[in-house]
Every structure is written in C-alpha cells, then in structure tokens.
Specification:
This protein has 157 residues and is of the alpha+beta class. The protein has 7 helices and 4 strands, in the order H-H-H-E-H-E-H-E-H-E-H.
Length: 157
C-alpha cells in the first residue's frame, strides 16, 4: 500500500511540473499594460535585457543590492550605481520615494515592466521591487553602456 501512495504522489508531482512548463510568458506589450502610471522612465525592451544581464553579473561579483530597505540604506550612505525599479509593484507607494532620492544624489534610475523578471535576473524565483547595481571591473563596459542609455531616456510625464 505504501508503494501505491508514493506512486500517486509522484504522479501528481509530474502533473504539477507539466503545468509549470506549459505556462507561457507574457509578451513585452502585455507586461507594459500592467505598469503603474508613474513608472517613468521605462527602459526599452533591449535596455531591459541588458540591465538583466548586468544584474546577473553583479550578483556573481557581490555588487548587487536588492530590496527596498537595503537599497534605501545604500542610497543614504552615498553608494553610487544604477537603480532599477519594477513598474508593476502594487501598492506603488512603497517605492515612490526612491526616484526622488536618486535625483537628489544624481544616480540614474529606470523602471522595468516586471518584478518577477527582475527577481529572476539575479537568480531567484522571488520577485524584486528594486535593485541597486554598483560598478565593478568585471562588467564595466556593459555597466557604462546601460548608464548612458538610461540617461538618454526621456522622462515624459
């Protein structure tokens, strides 16, 4: 009897995996539909992919800070870098003060459309509202490219 129960549990686990693998990802246009109206400047599709790549490299070099409390603490201490915010955060009030802090400290920031993809970019299944990427020699070229492209994004209110 114990074997039968175990095999039934294995079958349900197999079914759960098939459900997870068959889920389709949203397209860029669908993600942009769920943005908050204050999510400006929004990174383009190409810039978003580059930012996710920089985030992944920064994680391997321990130059990445994630989460509202940690990023806010680092900004107050005077750390420099790039701030990437998720545009689909709800309620948006929890991160509305961060762009003001970035502008006061002359730190480039932008929004990406998905908090789940922002979390996935540094290797976790957990969603992320905000990350701070610090400069490092291992990815300096990509970092400076992203920083200049963020500065070029027009802020349309």
């Amino acid at each position: 009897m114990g074997k039968n129960r175990k095999s039934e549990a294995d079958q349900t686990d197999d079914n759960d995996e098939s459900v997870n693998t068959t889920q389709t990802k949203l397209s860029w246009e669908d993600k942009v539909k769920y943005l908050s109206p204050i999510a400006r400047p929004l990174a383009s599709k190409r810039l978003t992919k580059k930012l996710y790549k920089v985030i992944n490299k920064a994680k391997s070099q321990n130059s990445l800070f994630k989460g509202i409390k940690e990023v806010q603490k680092r900004l107050r201490k005077g750390d420099k870098g790039i701030v990437v915010l998720a545009g689909d955060v709800s309620p948006m009030d929890i991160i509305t003060h961060i762009p003001i802090m970035c502008e006061e400290r002359d730190i480039p920031y932008c929004y990406t459309p998905s908090k789940s993809e922002l979390g996935e970019s540094y290797g976790t299944k957990r969603q992320a509202c905000i990350v701070l990427i610090k400069d490092h020699e291992a990815y300096k070229d990509l970092f400076t490219e992203c920083k200049t492209k963020i500065a070029e994004i027009p802020i349309d209110y």
